[in-house]
Amino acid sequence: MIIYIDNHDFRYEIENLTRMFFPNTRIEIDQNIPEELLPPYIYTKLDISNDKAEITAEISVGGFHERSSKLYSVDKDNLELEMALMLFDKFTRLTEVIPPWGVLTGVRPIKLFRRLSEEHGFDYAVNYFTEKFKVSEEKTALTVETEKNEKAIIELSEPNSYSLYISIPFCPSRCSYCSFVSATVEKTKHLVEPYTELLCRELEKTAEYAKRLNLKLESVYMGGGTPTTLSAEQMRRVLTAVNNNFDLTHCREFTVEAGRPDTITEEKLKAISQCGVDRISINPQTLNDEVLANIGRKHTSNQVLETFDLAREYDFDHINMDLIVGLPGDTFESFKSTLDKITELSPESITVHTLSMKRASTLTQSGKTINKQEAQTTSQMLSYANRTLHDNGYIPYYLYRQSKMVGNMENTGWSKPGKEGLYNVFIMDETHTILACGAGGVSKLKDCSSGCIERIFNYKYPYEYINDFEEILKRKERIESFYAEHS
Predict the structure, then answer these.
(1) Residue 385, Cβ neighbours under 10 Å: how many?
(2) Measured distance CA(356)–CA(305) in Å, rounded
(3) How far, in Å, are 3, 54, 80, 254 from residue 33 at the CA level?
(4) Running DSSP on this structure, what letter comes out for residue 355?
(5) How confident is the model at residue 402 (pLDDT cuts 50, 70, 90)?
(6) In terms of C-beta distances under 8 Å and separation of at least 24 residues, what long-range contacts does 186-193 make, across chains too?
(7) What average pLDDT does the chain have?
């Protein structure tokens, strides 16, 4: 499908809006308009003449053809949004799907709502979401509640605060839906030990910068990949490197994403517990064994339950569990059963993700639209999750969205009051600096007074990280000069 962009620079928004309805269709952008347009295509035009601005939108897909134009004053606020709304109206008629987040395509709707509320007032922000962005009442209410809970966490941060991210880019196997940079241990086992050694060196060097700059560590998050693919001894070495080099006096949260139940052992839990970790994540995704097999998981639902009980024996008082809505082969009844069993376990927090499709499956092929039934089922699952988690005393504390999500939904972190995952909020809100160590890690340096953000990228793959480690350390020198420039 071709999107024709005629005389405007709204490409990013128009492309993302189109992908919302055609998530797996190959899309091309063309600013050269031919004399004859051949379906399937999207055509958009902005024509400014004197004091008028005319917006035109045309869709020709699968036998559906519709074109319309509308005049505005040239000083009309947000012509880009008006063009998006015109297209949105046509897309919903074409697909018979009304996305609950309306025309919003961004990752951080909570941050957007907060800005609108701070600049224009709460009522204005609510009205703008429902009337201008066409966000449903249910999602607007979720936004309002999440923003309130998230704001309390953001206010914990100070101008010199930062968080630490540690990347372990290895997994026991690759899930079919995964888009993260991670390597299966079967293929890269020989890299794990040298990677561990160098990671400890990077942690030591990074801590030196933090100390010299008098930065205050708020949270630590070890993620991946699956950190517990490391051996107990390797895990202990990495965590000890954190304890020995960083000032944890003010650290509010220390998380290890244990992830796969089949990688968790008593020895690893003991090492994690003894090194001061107070929050772990055990991620079943689903408790349907058939669905687990479909997505490439090598564990059973019983292993999830056994691992959870084992973790409780080691006195972890904050266990998070991740679930995914919209997995291949899952049904509403199956998801309901999973969620009901998880809430019976009563973990301190539960994160409900919506599957983000990175490849064609049951959704779309070229020229086909979003699957209406799939979108409805996903919406039903999330509505049930919201009701059930509320009824069980959980509150939404952070929310974000991704491209190609089934049904154009969201990911939401739920927790018991006082058990929110702080790092999740800090990273998603871009509250303060994140210093990242390990392959695929991206440090985000933030000057809180100006809001300026600068990124330092580590190499993505373990072999790159190992082979050119000195370049990683060289890039880290930018931490100190950034703070010097913005002091």
Answers:
(1) 23
(2) 26
(3) 10, 17, 20, 55
(4) P
(5) confident
(6) 188/462, 188/463, 191/462, 191/463, 191/466, 192/229, 192/230, 192/234, 193/234
(7) 92
Structure tokens given for 364: 């779309």
Q: Which two tokens stand for residue 83?
A: 């063009």
Tell me the pTM.
0.92
The two structure tokens encoding residue 37: 């347009």
pLDDT at residue 179, rounded to an integer? 52
The CATH number of the structural domain formed by 152-356+388-398+412-474 is 3.80.30.20
pLDDT at 369: 47
Would you state the structure tokens that stand for residue 111, as one six-digit string?
């941050």
Architecture of domain 1-96: 2-Layer Sandwich (3.30)
Contact (Cβ atoms closer than 8 angstroms) between residue 68 and residue 363: no
346-382 pLDDT, tens digit each: 999 999 999 886 544 433 333 444 567 888 899 999 9
Q: How far apart are CA 482 and CA 148, in angstroms?
A: 32
- What are the Cα distances from residue 158, in Å, to 215, 218, 368, 433? 10, 9, 49, 11
Q: Which long-range contacts (CB under 8 A, 24 or more apart) does 142-148 make?
A: 142/386, 142/396, 142/399, 142/410, 142/412, 143/109, 143/110, 143/113, 143/399, 144/113, 145/395, 145/396, 146/110, 146/396, 146/397, 146/398, 146/399, 146/412, 147/110, 147/113, 147/114, 147/117
Alpha-carbon gap, residue 385 to 474, rounded angstroms? 46
Residue 421: both structure tokens together? 């995952």
CA dihedral 335, 338, 340, 341 (to 10 degrees): 170
Closest listed residue to residue 433, CA positions, set 451, 420, 417: 451
Structure tokens at 467: 């082979």
pLDDT band at 174; cut points 50, 70, 90: low
Pair of tokens at residue 298: 């090598």
Residue 103 to residue 13: CA distance in whole angstroms:
9
Stretch 258-284: mean pLDDT, rounded? 93
Residue 244, pLDDT score: 98
Residue 398's SS3 state is strand
